[in-house]
Each structure stands twice: as structure tokens, then as C-alpha cells.
Specification:
Number of domains: 1
Oligomer: single chain
Radius of gyration: 21 Å
Number of helices: 2
Largest sheet: 7 strands, antiparallel
Structural class: alpha+beta
Distance between the termini: 83 Å
Number of strands: 10
Helix content: 10-25%
Order of helices and strands: HEEEEEHEEEEE
Shape: globular
């Protein structure tokens, strides 16, 4: 009887461990193979920045392109689209970010000669009135070239100092995606 009891407890423990493993698989981050950042002026041609890495980390290098230059006299409406194009049909990661808006925030960092000369402000909020970054306003105030780094953080501390205005320094959380684009303002 004692052996039966011990065997039953061992099997029950294995069952609990198996359930925990299944639960962890459900919470794995989605693969983001494609990011498209479109900056549309009130008139004229949008500037589109595209990152594609269909095979994910490793393998082939990602393709990173920018379709043109920003004008220092314009204000742009920015919008982000994220996809998983490693599957058919492609998975819309943007919709997952909207559904889990409190757990995500994008950060935009401009460096090089354009540091401090391109303001990017949030135009969307999560259900707790904190920024997300899928919609932005982009306002260049000087000319030059530089880099625009876009970072998606999962579970950032949106209440930490500076995070609501776009500072990643105190955000914490886990980086889901980080990509740098060449940018030029004329």
C-alpha cells in the first residue's frame, strides 16, 4: 500500500510539471520578422522604413531599408505595423500588441547629427492612459543624417521616470525587437 501511495504521488507530480511546461509555451513571445514604420506628411510622399528578417535571429542578415528623406519643414504621422511572415498567412503582431497594450511600449531614439533635431511623440495610449507607440508624430527641426533606433519592450515599467515621454533608461522589461534605420532630413 505504501509503494502504491508513493507511485501515485510521483505520477501526480509529473502531471503537474507537464502542465506547467505547457503553460510556459503559451506565453512565449511571438516571432516578429517584419516591422514597417510609415511616416506620412500632410501632403507628399510618405517615408517608409522597413525591417525584414524572415528567418529570425541567425541565418540570413535582415533587410533594412528607408524609402527617402524627411523634410525639415514637415510634420509626419507615424504608424507601425509588425508581422510574422515566417508563416502563411502572415501573423499580424500589431493586433496582438493592441490586445496586450499595457504590456508593450515602443521607444524611439535618434542619434548622430540628428540627435535632438527630430522629435517623436506618442499619439496612442493603452487602457491605463500610458503610451504605446504604434501611432506617433514626427517633427524634424534641423537637417542632417543619423540613426533612428526603434525598440519594442515587453512588460516595461510605464510609471518609471521618463518612460511616458519616451526615455528607455528606466523602462526595464524585455526587448522584443530592436532595429536601427538610417535617416536623413533635408
Amino acid at each position: 500500500m505504501k509503494k502504491f501511495f508513493l507511485l501515485s504521488m510521483a505520477l501526480l507530480s509529473i502531471g503537474f510539471i507537464s502542465c506547467d511546461d505547457d503553460h510556459d509555451d503559451e506565453n512565449e513571445s511571438e516571432l516578429i520578422t517584419t516591422l514597417v514604420y510609415t511616416m506620412a506628411p500632410s501632403t507628399g510622399v510618405p517615408v517608409i522604413m522597413t525591417f525584414k528578417d524572415i528567418d529570425g535571429d541567425g541565418g540570413k542578415a535582415p533587410a533594412i531599408t528607408t524609402s527617402g528623406s524627411l523634410k525639415s519643414t514637415e510634420t509626419y504621422n507615424g504608424s507601425l505595423v509588425l508581422l510574422n511572415e515566417s508563416v502563411n498567412p502572415a501573423g499580424d503582431i500589431t493586433q496582438e500588441i493592441i490586445a496586450e497594450d499595457e504590456a508593450h511600449q515602443f521607444f524611439f531614439e535618434v542619434s548622430g547629427a540628428l540627435a535632438g533635431k527630430v522629435a517623436i511623440t506618442y499619439e496612442d495610449k493603452d487602457s491605463e492612459n500610458n503610451p504605446i507607440g504604434l501611432k506617433t508624430k514626427v517633427k524634424p527641426s534641423g537637417i542632417g543624417t543619423g540613426k533612428l533606433k526603434i525598440t519594442l519592450r515587453h512588460e516595461p515599467n510605464k510609471k518609471a521616470a521618463g518612460v511616458a515621454t519616451g526615455s528607455i533608461a528606466n523602462a526595464g522589461g524585455e526587448t522584443d525587437l530592436e532595429v536601427s534605420f538610417d535617416v536623413e532630413v533635408k
